[in-house]
Amino acid sequence: MPTSPNPLIQDIGFDAAGLVPVVAQQYDSGEVLMVAWMNRDAVVESLASGQMCYWSRSRRALWRKGETSGQVQRLVELLLDCDGDTLLARVDQLGVACHTGRRSCFFRTATSGGWQVTSAPEVDPKTLYPDQP
């Protein structure tokens, strides 16, 4: 786990749980891929390694994107918003970003009849996460 201090961390407004939301965006197309959370260690590791690392709230552990699925995100640029409490990670996504096998986690569109699925899975989620039921 990263322990070396990073001067960029002091400007990030982590919440009471020590987390900050981060939007992952494909750097060349602008496509929003996903929203996740980072703690201090995840930010430090992402900056040091050049690969996105998040904080999994459900597992309460660092989540190295693609470690299980192979669908890695190379960090191109990390931006901090005007309030200092949200990050934008401009990434180069290898494969799909969503655990459902879709390129983006945003695949449902609001319509007058409800949510319409606007994107089919590109990869069978069972091949991404064979240990999951």
Q: In short, what is this structure?
A:
The protein is mostly beta strands and 133 residues long. Helices cover 11% and strands 34% of the residues.
Sheet bearing the most strands, described?
4 strands, mixed
Count the DSSP helices. Answer: 2
Order of helices and strands: EEHEEEEEEH
| CATH architecture label of the domain at 16-95 | Roll
Low-confidence stretches at least 5 residues in length (pLDDT < 50)? none
Class derived from helix and strand content: mainly beta
- Can you give the mean pLDDT? 93
Highlighted features:
2 helices; 133 residues; two-stranded antiparallel ribbon; single chain; four-stranded mixed beta sheet; Ubiquitin-like (UB roll); mainly beta
What topology emerges from the helices and strands here?
Layout lengths: L19 E7 L5 E7 L1 H10 L3 E4 L4 E4 L8 E8 L6 E7 L14 E4 L2 E4 L7 H4 L5
Parallel strand pairs: 1-6
Antiparallel strand pairs: 1-2, 3-4, 5-6, 7-8
Question: How does this structure look, described?
Answer:
A hairpin with a 5-residue loop joins strand 1 and strand 2 (32-38). The protein contains two helices and eight strands; from the N terminus they run ββαββββββα. It has a domain at 16-95: Ubiquitin-like (UB roll) (Roll), CATH 3.10.20.810. It is mainly β and 133 residues long. Helix content is 11%, strand content 34%. The protein has a four-stranded mixed sheet, covered by helices on one side. It has helices spanning 40-49, 125-128, and strands at residues 20-26, 32-38, 53-56, 61-64, 73-80, 87-93, 108-111, 114-117. The two termini are 29 Å apart.
